[in-house]
Amino acid sequence: MSSLIGFREQSFLDKISILNEVSMGKDIADLDPLLDLFQNPLGDTSVDYMVVSALNGVLSSDESSAVKLLESENDKLKVLCIRSCGEFKFKTAVPVLSVLAEQTDDTDLLFELLTSLSKIGGEYALDIFRANITNEDDLVASMSIEVAGELKDEKSVESLITIVKCNNEDANYEVCDLTTWKAVEALTSIGCESSLNFIVENLHHRNPTVRRVVTDCLTELGAKTVPYLRKVITPEADKDDMILAANVLGFIGDKSGLEILMDALDKEYSTDSSVKYAIYEAIGNIGTMKGVISLIDGLDNDDELITLAVINGLDRLVNPGVIKKMVEMVSKGGSKAGKIIRAVVTAKALNIFEGLYNEGKIGRFMMNAVVASKDFEVHEAFRGKLAEIGGEVADADIARLPETVEAGSKKALAVDDSKSMLALYRSILTNIGFEPSIAENGQEAYSFAEQGDKFDIVITDMNMPVMDGMELVSKLRMTDGFETTPIIMVTTESEVSQLELAKKTGVTDFITKPFTPDQLKAKIEEYVS
């Protein structure tokens, strides 16, 4: 006998107590009374909610009834049973759910059905998900795409490729829709040769958000990506593709990528400084002793930014051989020696500094450069290292460092995923009287705006993980206080469409890599006196 007999005449507290007991007891005898209460509610929100909970509890122990009720004419009851079948993974419900999904033209109901099928196990209804990958409703399509990716369904690859290609067309590339985002993730998850070849070919997709998703997905996939990236780093490859491929190899950090990068330098696949910078930084990020030879060779390059990337990499791999070679190079004097010393200070390369500190004049030149810096963070970093070194000379050098540095009268925000670039920005900005704030991606940068910080100028990279420069600029322009703030975008992009898209989001001006510190200073001074 059901404990719900005479339920409607009970007091409120008794009703709640009875429904709690029914929900926990899961007695099939309570099903019919619960169905009556569900289809003819009392009108008390709290009690009616408890009825739903109790009905769901009873159905959890009665698979046959839950499946049978999927045919109910009551739409609310049908949806409740659809959700119950998914929640409790009732496999006997798959045929009925599949038929309902094929027959309905109600996208909300279809989404409920697909959600339930995905919870039971998408493999039991894979044809249904394949058929809805290109559904006009974004949520339905995205659900189907996710399942195809989770199940590594190679038969879905062509449909997924079509979605990404469509988003790259003239009429569509300015916005990355949800289905494109999910299609990139699914193609990477499927991981077959055709899907990964396509993803790598789209490293430089015209939409910056798609590029970021591609980069993030390939990085997460890891070493499996490396053979496909090899196809992009060739003498015939596009400059932008090579830069992005090198970045991904650096993010992955797998030793198998080192040979590709070293070959690109040794065989001079590109003479472009931006490409070389990306390769040197990636080699430094991989951080193996085998890469030291390439990094040492990079010190001969005349580009200051490349030197900075090389020094950053060598600082992680410093050993007596590295120090000996650097002593030889700096001892020759000239502009190259000055460039290396400046890079050691700008990059706060404390391990290299320690190795060179006791090398007579070299140590003195480095200390002079440290003292001359207007960046308080530089002073603090080297103050700590000198305290570790210890001794009378080190104590005297600590005394030379100013205790404070007057804050700049202007504030700047610099955003880049490259530590070398951020170090360069700090150096340039402090030298021209700015107080810099630094962020490694757009999301981190936007947190400054959310906290109420204001800036006289913003300098941002275009392609970054987590949040790219385009999205950052768009969000800043919709934030109080940033409507007219000068924003300079730093880019290696050669496509006119990308620069036009950046202008639409609100970029004030551009500076193209490679550039000298003086060129960036001049660009800043155009907008901030």
Brief write-up:
This protein is mainly α and 529 residues long.
Output the keywords.
mainly alpha; 62% helix; five-stranded parallel sheet; 30 helices; 529 residues
Choose one word for the global shape. elongated
Number of helices: 30
> Can you list the strand order of the major beta sheet?
2-1-3-4-5
Class by helix and strand content? mainly alpha
- Average the pLDDT over all residues and give the rounded result: 92
Query: Would you identify the regions where 5 or more consecutive residues have pLDDT less than 50?
Result: none
Structure write-up:
- The chain is mainly α and 529 residues long.
- The protein has 30 helices and 5 strands.
- It has a 5-stranded parallel β-sheet with strand order 2-1-3-4-5, sandwiched between helices.
- Helix 2 (31-39) runs antiparallel to helix 3, helix 16 packs antiparallel against helix 17 (273-286) and helix 19 crosses helix 21.
- The radius of gyration is 31 Å and the shape is elongated.
Secondary structure elements and pairings:
Blueprint: H1 12-25, H2 31-39, H3 45-59, H4 63-68, H5 75-87, H6 94-103, H7 107-121, H8 126-131, H9 138-150, H10 157-167, H11 178-190, H12 193-201, H13 208-221, H14 226-230, H15 239-252, H16 258-266, H17 273-286, H18 292-298, H19 304-317, H20 320-331, H21 334-346, H22 350-356, H23 361-372, H24 376-389, H25 392-400, E1 410-415, H26 419-431, E2 434-439, H27 442-450, E3 457-461, H28 469-477, E4 487-491, H29 496-505, E5 509-512, H30 517-527
Parallel strand pairs: 1-2, 1-3, 3-4, 4-5
Helix pairs in contact: 1-3, 2-3, 5-7, 6-7, 7-9, 9-11, 10-11, 11-13, 13-15, 15-17, 16-17, 17-19, 18-19, 19-21, 19-26, 21-23, 24-25, 27-28
